[in-house]
Amino acid sequence: MIEALKATLGEEVEKLQFELNVTLPGEIRRAVEMGDLRENSEYKAALERQQFVRARLSQLRERLSKLSSIDIAQIATDEVGLGSKVVVVDEKTGLEESYALVFGDALEYEDGQVTMSSPIGRSLLGKKVGDVALLKLPTMMRKLKVTAIRTIHDMKEDEV
Questions:
Q1: 73-150: CATH topology
Q2: pLDDT-flagged residues of the chain (< 50)
């Protein structure tokens, strides 16, 4: 999971680095050759894109740095954490729900995936089988009893 995310972010860094160092300077050069820069929309657009790319590169590098510092061995084996698949039962309705805790960097989330920073992710973090997670919603409070956990340590490489 972490290595795949690093690879995805690394690919985006490479594309943006190429755009910043090759594509955008060419666009800026062409726009300058057109003349008056005060009324040159191509020039302004290229400069705005350049600022955006620099900011995004900074974000990605910071995220990659944080990912590199994660030690899988430090993730608990008996409680909900990064990469855990959790089965909960709503104590009021009795409905069973499954969630997988993921990073917030995914471009597309699969059904049942929640980020660790989402309200449900935060309420489940650190819970063990039998614990009750309190999920505060604008209209009510949900009580979710944890009935099963599969941590990142329990899964095969292709499941993560």
A1: Chitinase A; domain 3 (3.10.50)
A2: 160
